[in-house]
Q: What sequence folds into this?
């Protein structure tokens, strides 16, 4: 199964309707999920996203995001890398980030 690395930009754009890239990130998210991609992210990325949502959006959205992520992890629909990224897998990862979504990914 193909995997895609999801960075802070992607999580924020998907989860914050006020983000200028919300619509394009939401569409990319839907397309990747339809194709069966498994998301890979790190504890650092999740912490950064949670903190931003809590401070810049509103605290309740951060709590909802945390619950949603926990459900996805428990359903084994996402890989959560807690230490080093190399532990995720030896295969190359695509990345869902601002550059990739805007069509500039090499």
A:
């Amino acid at each position: 199964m193909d995997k895609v690395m999801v960075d802070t930009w992607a999580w924020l754009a998907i989860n914050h309707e006020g983000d200028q890239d919300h619509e394009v990130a939401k569409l990319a998210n839907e397309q990747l999920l339809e194709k069966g991609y498994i998301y890979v992210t790190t504890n650092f990325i999740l912490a950064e996203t949670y903190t931003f949502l809590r401070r810049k959006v509103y605290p309740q959205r951060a709590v909802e995001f945390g619950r949603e992520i926990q459900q996805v992890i428990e359903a084994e629909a996402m890989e959560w890398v807690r230490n080093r990224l190399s532990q995720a897998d030896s295969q190359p990862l695509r990345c869902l980030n601002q550059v990739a979504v805007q069509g500039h990914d090499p």
